[in-house]
Amino acid sequence: MNLEDVYAGIILLLGIVILFQIFFMYLMKVRMHQLKFEIEQGSSRVDLSDIELEALTRNVEAFKRLKI
């Protein structure tokens, strides 16, 4: 086994590592798109009007004043 064989093995190993990294980056990209979609769906369900927000604030303030 000479030095060229060692270099060839290292290059092959690094090539495989790079392919795994590209694959995992693709998986992370897909997951980020899924999470972005879930956030967009969740934000559409949480829309509050000004009246609802004021009522919620008043109720929280009233709850704070209660001596429990």
**What is the 3D form?**
rod-shaped
The overall average pLDDT, rounded, is 88
- Content of β-strand: under 5%
Give a quick account of the main beta sheet: strands, pairing sense, barrel closure: none
Count the helices. How many?
2
Helical content class: over 70%
Succession of helices and strands: HH
Our Rg estimate from Cα atoms comes to 28 Å
The number of distinct β-strands equals 0
Query: Which segments are poorly predicted (pLDDT under 50) over 5 or more consecutive residues?
Result: none
- State the distance separating the first and last CA atoms: 80 Å
Descriptive notes:
The chain is mainly α and 68 residues long. It has two helices and no strands. The model has no long low-confidence stretch (mean pLDDT 88).
Please give the structural blueprint.
Elements: H1 3-45, H2 50-65
Please give a quick description of this structure.
The chain contains 2 helices and no strands.
